[in-house]
Every structure is written in C-alpha cells, then in structure tokens.
C-alpha cells in the first residue's frame, strides 16, 4: 500500500460536525479561485454532487437554480462541488442553461484532487470510492456548521426541505426558539423548556400555548 493511502486508512480523520467551525479552504471554481471565508457574513448551502452530465444531478442543479433567488432574499448563498474539472463544470452549466432555460448563478468547485471532499467527508467509499455523495453543509454567517445532510447517489435532494431548514435555523437564531416537526414559516415555534423546578412551576402561567410545563409553543 502506498504511504499516503496507508496513512488515510490508519488515521481517523476529524470530520466537521454540527456546532464546529466549517474548515476553510481555497479551491478552483467556475467563479475562479474561491475561499470558504469569502462567504462570511451570509449563510451558505455548500453541497456536493457525484458527477457532471448525469441525470439526477442535472435535476438537482435545475432545482437549485429555481430557488436561488428565494435564497438570496434571505441572505443564503449556494456553492456546489464535485471532482469534475472546471471545464466540465462550465460545459455542464452551459448545457443546463441551454436545455432547461435556467441560469446557474452560483460557483461550482472543481475538486479534482479531492482535497475539499476529504476535508468535509464527502466521499462515502461504500457507495463510490471516487465520486462525492450528495452532501449538504449549512454554514451560518459566522462560519459555523449548523447542519449536515447526506443523500445517496440515486436520490435527488428536496429543495423545499433545504429552504425550510435554513429558514428554521434563521428563526431559531432570531427568536431563541426551536421548531417542531414539519414546521413551516408562519407556524408556531417551541419555547425552550424551563431548566429548574421553580421555572417549571411558572411556565404554565406565562401565556404560552402549553400541553404541559415542558411543551409550550408560541406564535412569532
Ligand atoms: C445521477 O446524477 O443520475 C447519478 C450520478 C451518480 C450515480 C447515480 C446517479
């Protein structure tokens, strides 16, 4: 076994997790040289796809293009990545524009040496040893990783869920609340449960819509 491969097998790489700083990198993209730090101050949906000129990935890029304006309105940028070259990305993006009438307004990283893919754990060797899986990393304006989602190669992602997720995180940050299952903007949110017996006693008299002391909701 080559020394580098041996090192990779032998050493458990620390992969970024929720609540940690998203690892910075510099990479070539369809927008030129790009750094993660360039996105500081806005939210970022950083996603990988397996390969250019493949059908499921094409539907995903078209679907990302369809929500890119909505994302911009809530201060969210998009950035894609695969192991294909910049030239392949350019040709594919132009093809999507021509065939689907949708302009891809976000950069796509060409991670040919898999440097970023390994940094973020985007390769799932059980599925493909060479291509990146359908990974999504939601990164907040301070550069903190707030959510990770992985989809297999054969399942295209749901853009409405990604929009919902970012809106839920923004709502959590703005109002210091949580969002329940199937929450949609405009729905009631969950008030953080009280942390002492005394506060639990008070909770039922604070004007919230409560099922019990630990389960209270409010409109925002
Ligand atoms: C696709 O995008 O269609 C695809 C890519 C890699 C594996 C399976 C499907």
General description of the model:
There is one protein chain. The chain is an alpha+beta fold and 220 residues long. The protein folds into 2 domains: 2-157, Glutaredoxin, CATH 3.40.30.10; 176-218, Antioxidant, Horf6, Chain A, domain2 (Antioxidant, Horf6, Chain A, domain 2). It has 6 helices and 10 strands, in the order H-E-E-E-H-E-H-E-H-E-E-H-E-H-E-E. The strands form 3 sheets. A 5-stranded mixed beta sheet has the order 5-4-3-6-7, with helices on one face. Strands 8-10-9 form a 3-stranded antiparallel beta sheet, with no helix packed on it. The chain has a two-stranded antiparallel ribbon with strand order 1-2. The longest helix has 19 residues, at 55-73. Benzoic acid binds at residues 50-51, 54-57, 153-154.
Shape: elongated
Computed Rg = 20 Å
Low-confidence stretches: none
How would you spell out the order of helices and strands? Answer: HEEEHEHEHEEHEHEE
Condensed summary:
The chain is 33% helix and 21% strand.
Any key phrases for this structure?
single chain, about 220 residues, alpha+beta, Glutaredoxin, Antioxidant, Horf6, Chain A, domain 2, 2 domains, five-stranded mixed sheet, three-stranded antiparallel sheet, about 20% strand, elongated, binds benzoic acid
Task: Describe the SSE topology.
Blueprint: H1 3-10, E1 26-29, E2 32-35, E3 43-48, H2 55-73, E4 76-82, H3 86-100, E5 108-110, H4 115-120, E6 134-139, E7 145-151, H5 159-175, E8 189-190, H6 197-203, E9 209-212, E10 215-218
Parallel strand pairs: 3-4, 4-5
Antiparallel strand pairs: 1-2, 3-6, 6-7, 8-10, 9-10
């Amino acid at each position: 076994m080559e020394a580098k491969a041996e090192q990779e097998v032998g050493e458990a790489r620390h992969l970024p997790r929720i609540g940690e700083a998203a690892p910075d990198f510099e990479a070539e993209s369809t927008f030129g040289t790009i750094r993660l730090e360039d996105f500081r101050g806005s939210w970022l949906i950083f996603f990988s796809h397996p390969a250019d000129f493949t059908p499921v990935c094409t539907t995903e890029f078209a679907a990302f293009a369809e929500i890119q304006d909505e994302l911009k309105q809530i201060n969210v940028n998009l950035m894609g990545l695969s192991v294909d070259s910049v030239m392949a990305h350019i040709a594919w993006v132009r093809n999507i524009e021509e065939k689907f009438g949708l302009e891809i307004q976000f950069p796509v990283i060409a991670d040919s040496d898999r440097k970023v893919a390994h940094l973020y754990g985007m390769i799932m060797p059980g599925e493909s040893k060479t291509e990146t899986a359908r990974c999504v990393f939601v990164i907040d304006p301070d550069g903190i990783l707030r959510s990770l989602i992985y989809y297999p190669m054969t399942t295209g992602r749901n853009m409405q869920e990604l929009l919902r997720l970012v809106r839920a995180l923004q709502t959590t940050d703005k109002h210091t609340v949580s969002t329940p299952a199937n929450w949609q903007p405009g729905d009631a949110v969950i008030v953080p449960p009280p942390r002492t017996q005394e506060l639990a006693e008070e909770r039922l008299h604070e004007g919230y819509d409560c099922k019990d002391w630990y389960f209270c909701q409010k409109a925002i």
